[in-house]
Design goal:
The chain contains 10 helices and no strands. By secondary structure, it is mainly alpha-helical. It has 2 domains: about 80 residues, Homeodomain-like (Arc Repressor Mutant, subunit A, Orthogonal Bundle), CATH 1.10.10; about 130 residues, Orthogonal Bundle (Tetracycline Repressor, domain 2), CATH 1.10.357.10. α6 packs antiparallel against α10.
Length: about 230
C-alpha cells in the first residue's frame, strides 16, 4: 500500500485543455470537468479528500486512500489533480466556498445588521457540526497551503466587514472615526465565531440558535447603535 501511495503521489501530470472559465476554481491546474458526470466525479473526489485528510491529516493521507474512499480509479484522480498537495489546496478553497454559500441564504430577512450576524453565526455552527473535519483541514492549511489559509480568513473577514459597513450606513451601529474600525471588528467577530464553532459544534452539540443568541446579546451591548 505504501509503495502504491508513493507511486501515485509521484505520477507526472497529464496535459489538459484550457479550463472552462465558468467552472469554480477548485483546482490550481487547468483540469475542468466538461460534463455533468465529470462534475459529479470531481465532487466525489473532494468529498473523499475531506474524509481522508480530516481523519488522517495531510502527512498520513494518500491519493490511494482518497481514490479508495471515492471508489474511482487512480487515473481518474489525475484527470482533475496532479498531486496530493493540489487536491488539498482545492479542498481548502472548496470548503471556504461551502461555508460562504451555506451562510448567505440565512441572512435573508434579518431585522438589522446585528441580527444578520446572529443568523450568520447560527448557520456557521450548523455547517461546522455537519463538517467537523473543516477545522483540521483549515488548521493544516497554515503549513500545507499558506496562501489558501490566508485567503480563507481574509475573504471571510471582508464579508463580515462589508456587512458591518452596510449596517453602519443605515445607522444601526455606532460610528467610529478610525478607517479600520469595521475591519478590526470583523476580525474580532470572525475569531469569536471560529472558537464558538470549535467549542459548541465540534467539541459539543449545543443548539446553534442558543449560542448565536447569547453571542448576539454581547454584540448588541457593545456595538448596538445608541
Amino acid at each position: 500500500m505504501l509503495k502504491n501511495a508513493q507511486t501515485a503521489n509521484a505520477r507526472p501530470p497529464k496535459a489538459r485543455a484550457k479550463r472552462d472559465s465558468s467552472w469554480p476554481a477548485v483546482s490550481a491546474s487547468d483540469k475542468a470537468p466538461r460534463t455533468a458526470r465529470g462534475e459529479r466525479t470531481l465532487r466525489k473526489i473532494l468529498t473523499a479528500a475531506l474524509e481522508e485528510f480530516g481523519e488522517r491529516g495531510f502527512s498520513e493521507a494518500s491519493i490511494v486512500g482518497i481514490t479508495g474512499r471515492a471508489k474511482v480509479a487512480l487515473g481518474t484522480f489525475y484527470t482533475y489533480f496532479d498531486s496530493k498537495e493540489e487536491v488539498f489546496q482545492a479542498l481548502v478553497r472548496d470548503m471556504s466556498a461551502q461555508v460562504r454559500d451555506h451562510v448567505a441564504p440565512a441572512l435573508a430577512g434579518a431585522a438589522d445588521g446585528l441580527d444578520r450576524e446572529r443568523r450568520a453565526l447560527a448557520a456557521f455552527l450548523r455547517f461546522a457540526a455537519d463538517h467537523k473535519q473543516v477545522y483540521r483541514i483549515i488548521d493544516e492549511a497554515e503549513f500545507v497551503d499558506p496562501e489558501g489559509f490566508r485567503t480563507h480568513y481574509e475573504t471571510t473577514a471582508a464579508r463580515i466587514a462589508a456587512r458591518l459597513g452596510e449596517a453602519a450606513a443605515r445607522g444601526e451601529l455606532r460610528e467610529d472615526e478610525s478607517a479600520i474600525a469595521h475591519e478590526v471588528v470583523a476580525w474580532a467577530l470572525m475569531g469569536a465565531n471560529v472558537f464558538l464553532g470549535l467549542r459548541f459544534a465540534v467539541w459539543g452539540d449545543r443548539d446553534p440558535d442558543e449560542v448565536a443568541a447569547i453571542t448576539n446579546r454581547l454584540l448588541r451591548h457593545g456595538l448596538g447603535a445608541v
